[in-house]
Amino acid sequence: MEILLAFVIGALVAISVYQLQRRDLVRMVIGIVILSNAVNLLLFTVGRMTRAEAALIEYGATVPPEGSANPLSQALILTAIVIGFGLLAFSLVLVYRAYRSLDTIDAQDLVALEFDDE
What we know:
This protein has helices at residues 2-20, 25-46, 71-102, 107-116. The chain is mostly helical. The longest helix has 32 residues, at 71-102. The relative contact order is 0.13. Helix 1 runs antiparallel to helix 2 and helix 2 (25-46) runs antiparallel to helix 3 (71-102). It starts with a helix and ends with a helix.
């Protein structure tokens, strides 16, 4: 299962890098979202994907049982999902504001407009 997820993560990273190289700001935002999902999936895969043992430490033990999934990576992913959603909402508002005030969402046109003001 981990090998399949490694290929999926690689494909998601490739798609996100392709989207980030586009001139359209909306496609750049989509690339950022896909990249954050790829990183979340990577963290989930690294934290072991098993249901064999619960990640609970028994009374008197100092470490969880061998073969249990790492709950820290799952907690990090939940936090990253919330932060990623906030980043997506803020980015889309910025793109919308740029479109309303400058009538373009092309990144090169925005750079040209920035240098025209000087």
